[in-house]
Every structure is written in C-alpha cells, then in structure tokens.
Amino acid sequence: xxxxxxxxxxxxxxxxxxxxxxxxxxxxxxxxxxxxxxxxxxxxxxxxxxxxxxxxxxxxxxxxxxxxxxxxxxxxxxxxxxxxxxxxxxxxxxxxxxxxxxxxxxxxxxxxxxxxxxxxxxxxxxxxxxxxxxxxxxxxxxxxxxxxxxxxxxxxxxxxxxxxxxxxxxxxxxxxxxxxxxxxxxxxxxxxxxxxxxxxxxxxxxxxxxxxxxxxxxxxxxxxxxxxxxxxxxxxxxxxxxxxxxxxxxxxxxxxxxxxxxxxxxxxx
Length: 269
Hints:
There is one protein chain. By secondary structure, the chain is α/β, with parallel strands linked by helices. It has two domains: 32-157, eRF1 domain 2 (Nucleotidyltransferase, domain 5); 168-267, CATH 3.30.1330.30. The protein has helices at 19-24, 72-75, 80-105, 116-125, 145-157, 159-176, 184-192, 221-224, 234-244, and strands spanning 32-38, 41-47, 52-55, 110-114, 132-137, 180-182, 196-202, 209-211, 218-220, 248-252, 263-267.
C-alpha cells in the first residue's frame, strides 16, 4: 500500500503489525493556512514547521476590483459609504469562494488576519468558519512574510490544542451537514462504501468484531461471547479502508471523542 506521507523507520517484532503503527510514525509538520484581508487586497499563505510560502489565487486585488459589478441602483446612490459596503461584501464573497477551492486542496487550520472591521465582516459571511482557528485583528497590509509568520507563532506553538480545536470544528460542521458517522458500526458501514474523507479516532481504541449478514455490518465480538473473532481489530481495518479510498486519519488522546463513541468518520460532501 502506498501511503502519501513521509515515515520514520520502526522495527516491530510480533505476529503482525497494524496499519496504525505506520500512521503513528507520520512526521508531523505543523501545516496551516493564513489568509490576510485588507481593503486593498487579499493574500493566502501556506505555512508549516519549515517554510512559509504565498499561494497564488484568483481573488480580486482590491475591493475596487468589483466596482463595475455594483448594481446600477447602488451605483447611483449619493451615499458613498453605502456603495462601499456593497463593494466590500462582493469582494469578501469572492475571497470566500476562492478559499473554498483552496481548502479542498489543503484542508488545514486557517488563520484570518485583518482589521477588526474587515475581519468581522468576513466572519459574518464566510461558509468556512469550521476551518478558522483564530481571527487575528490588526493592520498587516504592509507586513512581510516573515512578520506574518511571527504573528501566528504563538498560536501554532500549542499545536496540540490548535489541532484539537480544528478537529472538533470539523466534526461539528460535518454533523450539521449530516455527513458524520459516529461509533464503530456506523463508521465501518461508511468506510466499506469508500465514503470516508477523514477518520478521527482515539489512539488506543481497539474493537474486536465479527461480520454480520453483509460486508458493511459488524458486531462487537464481546457482545457475542466469541473470543475467536473474525476481525482482531476493526479499527485497524477501517484505517486501511479509509486510506485506500483516498481519505486521511487523525488520532486523538483518550476521552477526546467521548461524544462520538471514540471514533468518527467525516464523509465526502
């Protein structure tokens, strides 16, 4: 199986090894996105432990890039501030649409930087609030890449907390869109259908199981009183199925997913 992740060498002497051991070895680069918004334009950056680079996007260069799209009714307003508000809203909607494309390619934690006014306006219209970790207020229009990276360093420093917040936001958003399976039985059913985009599971969770009447149904072996289960660890099998179908896996600490029966699967939207 080809895993599109860098791994560290690890030797295991046992009857077998589990796929989760390979995923555990994943080198964790602290990847994130940074969106800078100002009235004069927007910029998107991809950052991680080692680098911080600008992503080229199709966002308009400034609020005034949409001036020809303002409805005639508004364009005739004598109230200039009203016209600017309409132009600002169109500008921010355009940014949000572009952000959706970028998040599909890079489903990462997102920081939004901008003045309190423009960041607040963006917060009220964005469809991607579940990806936003923090709105950082300030005028960073003239800031260099190095300065922008430094701004978010305090947030990135506590990566564990940041990552947990991101995962919870994603789980809640998926539940709101009815695209979340929680609990081993439901997760197994969706994974078999190759419908898993992101599997979130507590790192030490194991589930001995036995097949039901069809391939997408399993039962907990302990409930059946059968210690010779057909599936030694259904969690490990689910991890394989999600990876094979192009999904990803994230592990959490124990009791982090209590509300989701210790394992949850975000489905493809």
